[in-house]
Amino acid sequence: MNEVQIEEIIRNTLSPQRFTHVCGVVAAADRLAQRFHVERQQARLAAWIHDYAREWPVDRWYEVAKERNIPEEFLSVAQVLHGPIVAEMMGELFDLEDADIANAVRYHTTGRVGMSELEKVVCLADYIEAGRTFPGVEDLREKAEHDLDLALASAFDGTIRHLLDKQASIFPLTVLARNDLWQRIKNKRTR
User: How does the average pLDDT of the chain come out, rounded?
Assistant: First the structure.
């Protein structure tokens, strides 16, 4: 299946607002991939499909997650389930068999330790696409012009602060991803 066909499936699946967001993520992922020498087509495809299941009802997320043997850790915070679900289903839904794209989709909301450059690009693109207006997004966009790791580590910091303020659950992989990125940044600075 080519990108145009995938775009059409996404357009017909998502609400207009979510589709607009996805288009913004595709554009941001394309720019970031070009800037940081990541395979642009992989970034674009991952961006197109990353939110395919985002608007499903929560009970459907849990049902499909159990059918697909999604790891237990993802079941603890329902909002992160859509990524692993799409990663598991992308072969049958979009005829895509690419482990890097699958991981970029799987971890686009959570991050993980040892993220690939493609995973970082898609995750950050989801944070900074043009439709995002949360406090601090302009700072993230500026950091994304120069340092992918710094921008993403800062984005994770903002997410964690936001979740703490709401007294909401924080997905453990996000904390680990944040710590890993900050350690990488510190290691680069001391070389």
Answer: 96
What is the DSSP annotation of 95-123?
----HHHHHHHHTTTT--TT--HHHHHHH
* Six token digits for residue 86: 């799409």
3-state SS of 146-173 is CCHHHHHHHHHHHHHHHHHHCCCCCCHH
Indicate the SS3 state at residue 69. coil
Asked if 51 and 14 touch (Cβ cutoff 8 Å), the reply is: yes
Q: How confident is the model at residue 175 (pLDDT cuts 50, 70, 90)?
A: very high
CA 142 to chain centre: 19
Q: SS3 of 132, please? A: coil
SS3 content of the chain, % helix, strand, coil (to 5): 70, 0, 30
C-alpha distances in angstroms, 12 versus 19, 30, 52, 89, 110?
9, 22, 10, 17, 26
Report field, pTM of the whole predicted structure over 0.90:
yes
Length of the chain counted residue by residue: 191
Radius of gyration of the chain (CA): 16
72: which 2 tokens?
């237990």
